[in-house]
């Protein structure tokens, strides 16, 4: 469903980034990186607001262009997950579906971090994590 | 330690911690293992770092530093020690004191003060645990512990501000 999934670390360094179509790779990398400012802006504004239920980890649509829609999610540990959807392939986007996609990435990420051989801050290199991302990219 | 399971896995954490402390106290028993206080703190750090990643998964976003601190006192402490921190105090300038009146790793030690010099070795893992958890939440800190009478332990967390 998604055409790109990215995990960005605390210090905005990419921990994991994968695209479904290698031809668009450069453009999608650019899209993901340029969305990070929007993530930061949104996290800061959400932290200030006192209303309880918008302190959700899911950040919603970050921005959309003619060809792609970018969705974001930021964990409590300041790690960001970005999903990019191809507008031509996905017409109706279901918010709940996106939430569950992000939740799956988050639990896969937590599992990968809990691997004692993983050094925090390194690129994620885990077959289980890879498998979950492949399912989301389909 | 990680899940609210039966009594058996609770005991496992205690036994593992006891073995670590005993290796630290009597290095001649395991000549092949070089464990020092700072390695022990580092073990705590990486456990805390990883554990908090899992525990905050279903948690709403933290508003501020105090919110994260409360999380450590309640959820984090409950997950690790099956109880909450008894008292949290702060001077609002980056120093927090977490007091546990019956700290799990000291609860089974004699209150007479006989083992007072072993106290640092019993609490250093937890210092690392708290420091690691806070580090993953984006708070850089120095954690020290103070034991004045046996089952009571005070952890002092000093937040390192980026500007300072």
TrEMBL record, chain A:
Protein's UniProt keywords contain Transport: yes
Highest rank taxon of the organism: Eukaryota
Cellular compartments annotated: Cytoplasm, Perinuclear region
InterPro entries: Longin-like_dom_sf, Sedlin, TRAPPC2L
Gene Ontology CC: perinuclear region of cytoplasm
GO biological process, one term: endoplasmic reticulum to Golgi vesicle-mediated transport
Key words, A-Z: ER-Golgi transport, Transport
Keyword Amino-acid biosynthesis among UniProt keywords: no
Pfam families to which the protein is assigned, alphabetical: Sedlin_N
Protein family (similarity comment): Belongs to the TRAPP small subunits family. Sedlin subfamily.
Name of the protein this chain belongs to: Trafficking protein particle complex subunit 2-like protein
Species of the source: Darwinula stevensoni
Automatic annotation (TrEMBL), chain B:
Any GO BP annotation: endoplasmic reticulum to Golgi vesicle-mediated transport
Organism domain of life: Eukaryota
A GO cellular component annotation in the UniProt record: TRAPP complex
Subcellular location, principal: Golgi
Localization of this protein: Golgi apparatus, cis-Golgi network
Family named by the database record: Belongs to the TRAPP small subunits family. BET3 subfamily.
Protein's recorded name: Trafficking protein particle complex subunit 6B
Source taxonomy: Eukaryota, Metazoa, Ecdysozoa, Arthropoda, Crustacea
């Amino acid at each position: 469903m998604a055409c790109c999934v990215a995990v960005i670390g605390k210090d905005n360094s990419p921990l994991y980034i994968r695209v479904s179509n290698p031809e668009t790779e450069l453009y999608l990398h650019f899209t993901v990186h340029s969305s990070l400012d929007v993530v930061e802006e949104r996290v800061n504004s959400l932290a200030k607001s006192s209303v309880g239920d918008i302190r959700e980890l899911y950040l919603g649509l970050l921005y959309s262009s003619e060809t792609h829609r970018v969705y974001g999610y930021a964990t409590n540990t300041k790690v960001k997950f970005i999903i990019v959807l191809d507008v031509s392939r996905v017409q109706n986007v279901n918010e709940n579906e996106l939430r569950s996609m992000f939740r799956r990435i988050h639990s896969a990420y937590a599992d990968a971090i809990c691997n004692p051989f993983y050094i925090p801050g390194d690129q994620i290199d885990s077959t289980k994590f890879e498998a979950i991302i492949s399912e989301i990219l389909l | 330690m990680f899940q609210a399971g039966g009594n058996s896995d609770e005991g496992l954490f205690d036994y593992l911690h006891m073995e670590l402390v005993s290796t630290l106290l009597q290095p001649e028993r395991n000549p092949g293992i070089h464990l020092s206080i700072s390695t022990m703190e580092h073990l705590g750090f990486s456990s805390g770092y990883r554990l908090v990643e899992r525990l905050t998964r279903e948690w709403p976003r933290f508003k501020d530093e105090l919110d994260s601190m409360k999380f450590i006192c309640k959820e984090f402490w409950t997950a690790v020690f099956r109880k909450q921190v008894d008292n949290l105090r702060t001077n609002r300038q980056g120093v927090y004191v977490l007091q546990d009146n019956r700290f799990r790793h000291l609860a089974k030690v004699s209150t007479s003060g006989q083992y007072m010099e072993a106290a640092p070795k019993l609490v250093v893992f937890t210092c690392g645990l708290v420091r690691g958890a806070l580090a993953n939440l984006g708070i850089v800190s120095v954690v020290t512990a103070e034991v004045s009478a046996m089952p009571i332990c005070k952890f002092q967390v000093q937040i390192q501000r980026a500007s300072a």
